[in-house]
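User: Teach me something about this protein's shape.
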Amino acid sequence: MAMRSYPISAFALLFALPAQAQTAVPASLRQQVEAVLARAPAGTRFGVLVVDNAGREVLAINPDQRFMPASNTKLFTTALAFDVMARDPAAAIAGGTVLRLLDKGKGAPDVAIAGGGGVSLSTAPDCTARCLGSLADKLAAVTRKVGDVIGDDTAFVDQHWSPGMSWNNIQTDSGTAPSALIVDDNETLLTVTPAAPGLPPVVQLSPYFTLRNEAVTVAAGETRLAFERAVNSREVRLHGTIAASAPVWRDLMGIDSPAHYAAWALQQALQARGVKVSGKLRVIHRPVQLPGRPDMVAIPAGKTRIAFIEPPAPLAEEVATINKRSQNLHAEALLRRAGLAAAAQTIFPTGEPVQAGSLEAGLQALQAMLGRIGVARTSYDFADGSGMSSYNRVSPRATVALLRWGANQAWGGQWRASLPVGGLDGTLRRRFAGTPLAGKVFAKTGTLNATNALSGYLVAASGRELTFAFMANDVPGDSGAGAVIDAALATIAQAN
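Assistant: First, the predicted structure itself:
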């Protein structure tokens, strides 16, 4: 998720407390923090738990209430991936993308691109690693004609969105459809350049989409542009106004059928290399399994003549992408990969069996892990792996338990290194900058409608490390509570 910017410095907020909070009479830490929280928009509900390195409570405010965690959900997803894949090194290297040439016995061979959810291939002209073009180069070297171009994402069940996903996020890069096939992070750039007043602006958009340009360039004023795209539609409607003197406007759109987009992108790459495509674009999905029905998938016919493989990103690199950038699509793919690995290890809790490669398999594996580490089942409910679902709920106590447990695992150092660092990088690069906490907060951000969260580790003024989970729900309007959370953490750090 993109980080909000806050007009009021968190530390200015800290030192702008009411006079009674600055008297010579010492206040308890809870009183000091509650004075800071009182600066949040009225009606905001906070949950806080802070513990020291021995697990002793430093501060607790509603620690057992359940809150919408937003992208703090990614802490749970990435810990699960490390946990199950550490038991089976082969699982960590599964998930690559394979390009197969399928010999049908007569006519031009078909070509199929199959994903495993662990690689985002790039079509960028300046691509240097994990490039779709490099696979197309290899194929063009062995054949100059192919039949059908097939996108195969059957490694995962064909579930495009999780329950509780807001419809308005689906068309954006925040809500692009999860798939085992990932090209360009399953998103595409839309750019709008102003023209002369009264004329439509100039729009650049992938030819995969069709454009309905209803926007107008105006002589002056604010730029007010928006785009709309119906679910599973490739028509984009751009509307609104852009000032003639305005800079180029950019936004990212999500892709609803990643397997089809991957096949289309491969077709474009092959044709650019002089390979004739005589067939059509096809996709192969793994349908959601119905009760009592076998899990059947129509595998492409034909004998594999040759295959080229793009291996997945190392797990630590993938986790860093997810946590530093708060990358939703990669989190959803990793949850499904973790579910596949857990199914192979038969570490699911007892209950109804779930379909391999499904959202439910990943969530069951997460439940099993949390049960093993002693997190109460009543303290959480998850509906996705990224935090975009409004159905997710978790308590600060459950989050702190995960953070403390994860830090003590063999992979704990890599997991912690994946977290944004206050004032330095990721989604915390602008928060805590120039303050005593710069470089001393290692935490996952979370922002969703009426929700802010920040959970992780911080080094206090004394030098000791604290583990914390801070959640704000029901924040009125669009003001956000991030600055209040930062100021409260500053208070806690100063007192410890």
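Now, about its shape. The longest strand covers residues 149-157. The chain is about 30% helix and 25% strand. If you'd like, I can walk through any region in more detail.
User: That's plenty for now, thanks!
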